[in-house]
């Protein structure tokens, strides 16, 4: 046998850049956490420690800050694209750049021009994969926690020797949505629309399973928002167990729940258009 | 010398209870994390393991769930008061009850009656200390992250042999507010008003130091919201450093910042009315 | 276009099971966090909410506990294999099972038989992928934090317009090792040996780059531990910056360092034998 | 009423300093997280933003690094004392300094001189309070997770209308020990001895309650380690619930446990010598 180097990449992770855009007394903020990963002709650095093909991760960090000044940040996707293209086009040894971004939301404090409060709701995400041959743009969000206090059932599942769960026609359904959607063509910013569709689809779906809710959310995004090729979800079932109050002489007509931490169900699924080529590269970290 | 038992307490921490209040198809949620700590005649359990004075922490948890059913949850403070009074009045061996609560906020998904999304902004807190002699109610919040992109200076401080920080007339001021305010008399729910005053005071104060901003925030709460005896703050200075872009041939006219994690300045202070008796018991965990 | 369901799976994540093996007064512990993910004929649950192909995640959790009783836990890999085979063989609708395990280490408190203290060092991991056609076993660890206080250099890298990092012939090299290795054939437990090789290889390699250290660690594992097909690493460069003490009239002969949090370099790489078939399925979550 | 400023302090939190002590090829490491909090004549900074009494937190950070070079780090307590005395003695406006330190442990990788691996077990802590009048030294640890797989009972507690917990003569007892001990006089380093006594006392105590175990641990430290005035504990009851396997036709002879996260019992207590003056100041953050 021979021992060889397989797939590899390197980069600067989690550069925290805040960009203030000033329009007189009225400011706007973009607050990003930027992670870069580069791949290319990197055999020698692994085999002998020859760094001549390496763009130091410190340099990558500097580039993030410099680009924030030169280009501003109009969206995480566009900022990531600028960076990814720069790394690949400017360095002959770098053939693929991945840029992943988290964006933290801020809203203006009422009646002010340059004072902000973190929204704290979900985190917006973006990941770009760029080579000379292809560019993929994936937008997403995570930590969007939603709950329906009625309108959810769960029954009709397999009963085996280890099954004790009673069927139910009424339960709380809650999850923390992680969703990422791949743009079919050029990136267009439809983040707010997608978020609104996700919330509405979660809310209005009478749910027989979290899978059914997940699929409906994805289907509606693909139907209602143009330009999206596929959407992927990871949705933990944040279990809310109805507490048995009978030992205390009390009924519990779907009012008092225990919110459990672990274990939790985890539902993952992809919904896609059948007329768009697959792009597995777009999804690897 | 003799070795003796000093102050002690025990209780069930972090019972996660969700209470649904139903008004036909329109539901409301309270989502709490409840921690109880009881003190009393507990020498023997420590010295010999005699548990006859102990109200098991499992029983405390059950009580939280039962009370959520019997009394509902009109506010974290009122729910905590009910629990604390119950433990002290029902158990001869328990002389002091502390109940600390975190509340997670939810907002209705637009155009729905029983679908919710976590607001994710700040966490509301409450802590009640109850004995036969006195009851103290403290309301608070944490993780309220705010930022002014201008209107902050820092200069005129001590220069010693270890000082390298340049003075500035322009910086970003950002912090994550933890504030707790003690009610002078009976609890009245003015949470939303206090939060609004805190945000506004942070925003409109031209700041010469984070201490000055902190004091102004506290003073305004005491002036504008009746019934508050004192307010305590812990406010980390979430440093945003202006990036030096000169090595790249770029200026940086207060536009590109690096958001640092550690270390951070930490400013703590109390603002109080001088006509209300102190109550140190109200503040111990 | 048509909208279709793509890859999907579901399962119970993070079932925390502790198994006590008793040999008279001398006990042994295995402390696991078990996550199951199942795939199969799950179109209908997504499309219509028909759960007849679904093995409820609650049932999966029960199975974990029952199997811990029936089979004991000889290693996380063997326990995961038992579970994965059970789910696929017992349920006609389930065609693939993934079982991922974290194991927390305990060591005996000296001179006792059934008292333990968490080692706290690294977390051992295992992931099994099982279908009727193939079974893959991957063992690993994470959070193994290592540091060389000398014997590390970094120079000879690309200098572009954004490069400011000075070259160095002396630096601290520190990382938190995440490593996973795929067994070429049947699983044999060589965890302690692999860990020892990783530590030794990190320590004795005079490093010209973290990539070189990473490759050496992987090469030595493949050379010295039989039965391993490939090993994958993710190693953050935990930067320790030499503090400039000159403003205080002090030198700093490689003694005082600032340990930074973010950003950090992140180095990822695979080292593999060229005579073993690839198995990408083994690695997906 | 008048609104006044109450107790306040400010400082630099979480300066991460790593000090390498070199003895030829054999190095030693101290890895600290240092937090400083200063109090004094700080009214004006709060009231008017006049910073003339303020030692900038950036300067405090610089002092930490400079002192690590000048004095080395022989123990976290001695390093904290040097810093606290410096701040109070060198600045007329500063009257009290608190220095809190976390120390992360490293052990040498076998057969090497300057390669280390994080022990990962517990975190050592120190907190010093210094004024012109008095100095208090508190040593401690946290995250020391221990478990007895037998030798623990819990029965004889109060039964009220909310009690459902069955009594038990056999259970797992597990906790994550946070302990802090105040030195009666001058600091002497007995950390390893105290840790060993804590572990042994936890292990050998047949427990009728976690309170009894806690008291025994404290009593033994005070008896066996000279120079300690008092010790304070916070010990969560990390519940391990015996799983009911009867629905699956299995018994469970104290073998399979579910390790729960929340809620948890929390036991707090102080054990002290009656011949040493109290020092509440030593304990406030």
Task: Explain the layout of strands and helices.
Four copies of one chain form a homotetramer.
Chain A: E1 3-13, E2 15-23, E3 26-40, H1 43-47, H2 57-71, H3 76-90, E4 94-104, E5 106-108, E6 115-118, E7 123-131, E8 135-148, E9 173-183, H4 191-204, H5 210-224, E10 228-237, E11 240-242, E12 256-259, E13 264-273
Helix pairs in contact in A: 2-3, 4-5
Structure in words:
The structure is a homotetramer of 285-residue chains. Chain A contains five helices and 13 strands. The first copy, chain A, has helices at residues 43-47, 57-71, 76-90, 191-204, 210-224; strands at residues 3-13, 15-23, 26-40, 94-104, 106-108, 115-118, 123-131, 135-148, 173-183, 228-237, 240-242, 256-259, 264-273. The first copy, chain A, has an eight-stranded antiparallel beta sheet with strand order 2-3-4-7-8-9-10-13, covered by helices on one side. Chain A has a two-stranded antiparallel ribbon with strand order 5-6. Chain A starts with a strand and ends in a 12-residue tail after the last strand. Chains in contact: A-B, A-C, A-D, B-C, B-D, C-D.
């Amino acid at each position: 046998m021979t021992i060889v180097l397989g797939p590899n990449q390197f980069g600067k992770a989690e550069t925290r850049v805040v960009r203030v855009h000033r329009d007189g007394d009225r400011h706007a903020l973009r607050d990003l956490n930027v992670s870069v990963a580069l791949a290319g002709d990197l055999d020698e650095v692994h085999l002998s420690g020859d760094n001549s093909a390496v763009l130091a991760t410190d340099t990558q960090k500097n580039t993030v800050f410099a680009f924030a000044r030169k280009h501003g940040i109009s969206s995480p996707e566009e900022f990531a694209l600028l960076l990814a293209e720069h790394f690949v086009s400017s360095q002959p040894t770098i053939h693929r750049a991945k840029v992943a971004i988290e964006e933290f939301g801020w809203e203006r404090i009422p009646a002010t021009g340059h004072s902000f409060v973190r929204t704290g709701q979900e985190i917006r995400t973006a990941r770009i994969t760029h080579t000379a041959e292809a560019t993929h743009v994936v937008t997403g969000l995570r930590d969007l926690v939603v709950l329906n206090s009625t309108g959810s059932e769960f029954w009709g599942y397999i009963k085996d020797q280890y099954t004790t769960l009673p069927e139910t026609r009424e339960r709380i359904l809650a999850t923390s949505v992680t969703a990422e959607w791949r743009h079919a063509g050029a990136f267009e910013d439809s983040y707010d629309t997608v978020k609104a569709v996700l919330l509405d689809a979660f809310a209005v779906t009478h749910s027989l399973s979290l899978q059914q809710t997940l699929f409906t959310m994805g289907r509606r995004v693909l139907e209602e928002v143009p330009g999206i090729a596929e959407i992927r979800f990871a949705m933990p079932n944040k279990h809310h167990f109805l507490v048995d109050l009978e030992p205390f002489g009390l009924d519990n007509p779907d009012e008092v729940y225990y919110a459990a931490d672990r274990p939790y169900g985890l539902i993952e699924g992809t919904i896609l258009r059948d007329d768009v080529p697959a792009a597995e590269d777009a999804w690897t970290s």
